[in-house]
Every structure is written in structure tokens, then in C-alpha cells.
Amino acid sequence: MSIVKDVEARGMHHCETTALGVLLRHEGLDLSEPMLFGLGSGLSFVYWDGRGMEFPFLGGRVKPFELTRNLAARLGLALTVEETTSPRKAWQNAAAPVDAGRPVGLQLDCYHLDYFRSKVHFGGHIVAMYGYDEHEAYLVDTGQQGGAVRTSRAGLAMARAERGPMTARNRSFTITLPAHPLSWQDRIVPAIKDCAEAFLAAPIANLGHRGIEKAGKQVPRWLLRAGEPRHDLPQAALLMERGGTGGALFRALYRDFLDECTRLIDDDDLRAGHRLYAEAAVLWTEVSTLITKAGESGEAGYLEQAGAILHDLSRIERDAMRTLRRLQLPPAAPGPLG
């Protein structure tokens, strides 16, 4: 048996920020989940209805692991990433940090994890591993999945090796703080501006505020698009609210991030952006409620209402990001992480 000492197995709302929290707290940096999400410029939007998909997917964040890369680059953290097609090497890459007294992050397909109650394939799931014995691995997952959990090593190996959308080749990673780390407070504005720029300059119409507008046009047709409306629509709504998003398709997390920032930075544009995302979070929850009602009742009128709200949300989020993009960058100055 090998167990990392003094790991705080705190399960949060979202898988990637939960794993990041475990790794960074062990390094001595304890940030709230909204702050981790915001510093990683995690907010985005995608309307995804690819060939062969049973039903469209609404995504509210950047692609898996991009948040981790963003956060490490922004705070000057040393991010060490390992990938391999060898099962033996994959286990060595995961076990070695634990044996050395450090938790390790793993990207995998949650379908194969013993403790997952909902058996669906999602290859962008991320957990922290802090121990193992002959038969099981000890993980930290979201609060919804149980926080400190265990899964069989055989199941973990299958989860890490799975191929398909959003999967990685047995990806494992560790994070190390530098000897003279940057002040995370000084990196808030760059993180907000980068997120706003990416959201506003999305290259295709499925992304950013244009993606939300597209969703507003497509969602009213979902009763016809669905193979099983009574299942497909409530499931889509459930993923928006409870699929590791923190509620409101990650807008609640970003709202709380901006609220935390207003307590550190005195800026009218920042406060305005926070107010707009507080409004957006309420409306996204209303959209998911209407989608559920449409699936349960078969009434298309609920989807028409949802489409109209999505049209408003496209404008609200566009205006919010244009406002946040105006924030002034602070002068760069090294300092201790607090």
C-alpha cells in the first residue's frame, strides 16, 4: 500500500477543478473552486451535434485539460504531463508520484470507474489519485461522486486506456510551485481578458456567443431531433445543471469567480460583468427547466421559450465579455502566493 500523507480529499462541483484543488493544496496553494476555474479561463460555450451523436450536447467550458494548462501557464507552475499507450508504463506514471509522496492527476473515461452510478462514456473526466494498494486505487472526485472514493485498479486501467471523443492516452500529470511563484491576485485580470477574447473571437458559429445564438435556433427543434424525447431532453438538462458544471452550465461558477474578484479589485467594468453573469446564471437554469418540461410533456412551446431565452443569453454574454475585455492589466510584479 502507498498513501500520500496530508491530502485533503475535498470533492467540489467540477472534476478538473476538484483534481487541481487536491494537487495545489498539497503544494501549499489553497484557492476556491471558482477562483481555480476563473484563473484557468475555463468558461466557454459549444453547441455540438456531430455525426453519429444520438443527441446534441451543450458544453459550457473549454475542452478537457485546457483549463489545467491555462492555470499552470498563468501562475508559472511546473506542469509535468505523461502519456503512453503502454499499460505498464501508464501505471508506473501514476504510481511513481504517489510513491514519492505527491498526488497525481489522471484523465480518463468515467464509464469504467466502479463508484460511478451513471454509466455513460465521458473521456474528459479528471480525478486525483493519492494512494493505492494491491487491488484498488484511492481517488478524489467531485462531491457528487463521493469525494474520497476507491475503484479497482483494473477498472482504472480501462478508464485511462479508453479511446474516443475527448480521451487522452493514459494521461497523468503533476504540478509543482516554483521557488518564487507569481502572485495569483495579479493574474486575475489577464485571466478574465483572455477568457473574454476567446469567447468573443470564437472561429466557428458553434462556439462562444454565436454558439449560444445557434442553440437558440436549434433547441426549439429538439422534440423532432430526439429519438426518445422523454429521456433525451431531461438528460440534456440534467447535464447542464448537475453534470459537474456547478449549475447553470458553469455560469454559476464564473459568476462566483467574478464576485470574488470584485472583493479584490475595485473596477466598474468588473462589477458590471459580474451583474451580467449573475443574470445569465439564472436564465441558464430556466433554460434547463424548460427543456426538462418539454421532454416530460411533449409540448414544443417550452422549447420555443427556451430558444427565446437563449437568444437573450447570447446578447447578455456577448455584452458581459465585451465589458470584461475592457479591464486594465495591472503592472507585472513577482510576489508570494497567498
Automatic annotation (TrEMBL):
Superkingdom classification of source: Bacteria
Source organism: Planobispora takensis
Protein name per the record: Lantibiotic ABC transporter
Domain DUF4872: 155-324
A Pfam family: BtrH_N
Domain Butirosin biosynthesis protein H N-terminal: 14-142
